[in-house]
Amino acid sequence: MFLDDTRIHPSLVLRKVNRIGFIAVLFVLLQFQLKASELPPGFTDTLIATGMSSVTRMELLPDGRILVCEQAGTVRLIKNGVLQPTPFLTVVADSFSEHGLLGIALDPDFATNNFLYVYYTATDPVIHNRVSRFTADGDTVVPGSELAIFDLDPLVGPLGWHQGGNLRFGSDGKLYIAVGDDRNGANSQSTDNLFGKILRINSDGEIPTDNPFFATLNGKNRAIWALGLRNPFNFAFSLIDGRLLINDVGEDTWEEINDGIAGSNYGWPETEGFTSDPRFRSPIFVYAHGTDDNTVGCAITAGAFYDSPTSQFPTEYHGKYFFMDFCDGWIRTLNSDGTSTLFGEFTYYPVDMKVSSDGALYYLERGLDSTTDGAVHKIEFTGQSAPHIDTQPANVIVPRGQPATFSVAASGAQPLSYQWLRDGVDIAGETSPTLTIPNVTMDDSGASFACVVSNEFGTVTSNSATLTVAPGTAPVGEITSPAAGNQYRGGDTINFAGTGTDAEDGPLPASAFTWWIDFHHETHTHPFIPPTTGITSGSFVIPTTGETSADVWYRIHLLVTDSDGLTHSSFRDVTPIVETVTVDSDPSGLQINLDDQPRTTPITFSTVAGVNHTITALSPQQLGNTTYQFVSWSDGGAATHTINGGGTFVATYQVAEPLPPDVVLYASEGTRVGNYVVVSDGTAAGGARISNPDGGAAKVGSALANPGT
């Protein structure tokens, strides 16, 4: 998204709320939302529907209806371009942080059996993710039709991050499930749990016997199809050749697209980005973190193959893989040579993308922040240069005496001209994409406003938007706790409270208050506590595990609403106490694991005070031609232990004693003595040959006494 050719992150806008007031910020937010997509000539981007909250995923029905998942547990229905007031289905979901309703897929035989599947965070008997099947009936599901077909492991991550959630059926008719690592990288390399994996099950929840680990694992872990993933938020199958591509959201450096191949290990947390380690499958494409241009981003959240049976896009797009970044506002296509090409730029925070049977490309926007509605957009190829309305003007409610702003976004051959209408009559001088009425009166209430957009190829008129003028004034909310400048440590309890008053209503009741808390991490945000109405105060605990970056903070939001529907928004940031940690070895230059990832000493980094980090001294290991064994940590901790504050931590090593490459024993083939294994039978005189595969981790004190033992 660009304003005056400068990329601006949403958090930079939101920081201005307390300085310039809610109405002015609403104007800025509308500018973000209504910026026209920048697409190749002949393509249009149309807003289909908005008004949804914290959206996560969508599904296109065969008849053109659209299902949209809201994180809190509701599936909304868009029919004939209109968001229906009655939910399609509702589940009881825990929506803390990144928990919630996260995935939806249609059965391959939906046209005949009406089955659909959802992935959500169930609350019974413990908090865990679940895949359930429902039966559709018209514009809702059959009451009581839920059938839980697969329950995943209990969730224990304190931040609630990295839940994955995408569901898709492959060409083999099996249901594939993307599961994040629950913000614990060690989960991804273990086959004792389902986190950090792609799972594969039958449509009834049974596990296929041809799964790659079926013969070696037990129970539900037999569903593991691939492992070593961090947060595979999205994946897609090609209808052309059945290829599976997996988008894995990265940690500090790289976003990945991986070839989905049965039994693969993608390396997290031991590697991120391209790797030559033979244990792992390297991604086929990566891009770096950043905000400098349209080749970098923060999180790869949406992807789809353009493989519709009916293709409206030009030939060069047939079979292409489209993908989107959550923060940086672009769509790119993956090329066969491992590069990518920019397709378009638009607004922020896409979470899903689908291709319809008629060849249109749909994408789902979560919204600019926690108060901005989610939206469904459609990209089509018309091949025409006449103007097209991408985003219609929206209804506005403002208090008397305040400004009211309407905006329109359009595309087409340049230059475009604009003319605003009031109740069907031209407004003199209003010829820009934005119309502002500086000081509304009660006489303005009920007026309708539309915009005519023209170029040399044609003219189009937007939908009309209605202005409602409230007779009173907007309320005023104030966050009284925590105090401005308050800082935290991991494990602290943060109490929040506020007041709300209105000139007409007086002190506002608890029902007028809505709170939510976002966790800011570098250039993007995670929902921490979802919007909660009906309280004037509350508290939350800062986790001690989970995110290990120091570039983080919590933003507490308060929205108060008066009886006229007028609102006021404010926020308070709570920032961390940051300390410095140095991890080294003696001698320096050896390998340690920091939070499950291999690093070379010395390492210096910033941490939030009170947040846990795990350090592991690897032993034995080689530096040059010398083998070293771990002796101790400077803080007295075990080889693997947790630290939670600043300081210097040194792992002391000693040179390992040289060991013979092999010795002679009287033992049978396969016998293990310490870390030595018999590699050739030697029950007769002369003994057996053995090797030391563990590189000197143990010694054999003496040979076995008798032949044949």
Give a written overview of the molecule.
The protein is mainly beta. 4% of the residues lie in helices and 45% in strands. The protein has five helices and 60 strands. Strands 30, 33, 34, 36, 37 and 38 form a six-stranded mixed sheet that branches. Strands 4, 5, 6, 7 and 8 form a five-stranded antiparallel sheet that branches. Strand 33 and strand 34 form a beta hairpin. It is globular, with a radius of gyration of 29 Å.
What's a quick, concise take on this entry?
By secondary structure, the chain is mostly beta strands. Mean pLDDT is about 85; it is low at about 1-35, about 660-665, about 680-690 and about 690-709.
Instruction: Compute the number of helices.
Output: 5
Helix content: under 10%
Percent strand:
over 45%
Model regions low in confidence, pLDDT < 50 over at least 5 residues: 1-35, 662-667, 681-690, 692-709
Whole-number radius of gyration? 29 Å
Return the average pLDDT rounded to an integer. 87
Class by alpha and beta content = mainly beta
Biggest sheet details: 6 strands, mixed
Shape: globular
| Tally of DSSP β-strands | 60
N- and C-termini, Cα separation:
75 Å
